Amino acid sequence: MVAAARERALPLTGVEDFTSVPGQGVTATVDGSTITVGAPARLLDTGADARPQRVVVAELEEAGRTAVVVLRDREPVGVLGIAMGRAGSDLALETADAVVVRDELATIPPIVRLSPTARRLVVQNLAIAGAFITVLVAWDLIGTLPLPLGVAGHEGSTVIVGLNGLRLLRESAWPRPARDSA
């Protein structure tokens, strides 16, 4: 997040009085404003000011997602569909767009940076598996594909797809966030 702010030349400000209550949310003071992030039921009141956020929350919940509300000085300013691993409920973990298995918000930027690579690998894996299956089926229809060779070809493609997917576990795929001195 810090790197993204620096790329956009946004001013970085210090955070004070940070508190976190599992299952409830987090609160901190940023530039003299109190920022609170937590469950909509706990943070959104029934006033007209919160109506747009309640609509977004309702849409997310109807789609089976979990919403988190952001307040600045007790006024709603945004809604966020992220589940934190150990503290999240099973439903939240199953329906979230992203699941962070460690309760560290610092892991979110690397996940966002990694998602295009993950998508490319999924497409590559589908292409590899599709190519193997196409060749094996064509070979069997045109000629006679021996069963052991067909099994070896299919299982070989599975191994290649698995090894290709393991590239996401490389240390270089997970760049460490820069420490902010502010």
List the topology elements.
Elements: H1 2-7, E1 15-21, E2 25-30, E3 33-38, H2 40-43, H3 51-62, E4 69-72, E5 75-79, E6 83-84, H4 90-95, E7 99-100, H5 108-142, H6 147-165
Helix pairs in contact: 5-6
Q: What does it look like?
A:
With 182 residues, the chain is of the alpha+beta class. 45% of the residues lie in helices and 18% in strands. The chain contains six helices and seven strands; from the N terminus they run αβββααβββαβαα. The strands form two sheets. Strands 1-2-3-4-5 form a five-stranded antiparallel β-sheet. A two-stranded parallel sheet has the order 6-7. Strand 6, helix 4 (90-95) and strand 7 form a beta-alpha-beta unit. Helix 5 (108-142) packs antiparallel against helix 6. The longest helix is centred in the last third of the chain and has 35 residues, at 108-142. The model has no long low-confidence stretch (mean pLDDT 78).
Determine the strand fraction and express it as a percent band. Answer: 15-25%
Q: Can you summarize the main beta sheet?
A: 5 strands, antiparallel
Shape assignment: elongated
Straight-line N-to-C gap: 13 Å
Structural class: alpha+beta
In short:
With 182 residues, the protein is α+β, with helices and mostly antiparallel strands.
Features:
single chain, 182 residues, alpha+beta, five-stranded antiparallel β-sheet, two-stranded parallel ribbon, 6 helices, 7 strands, elongated
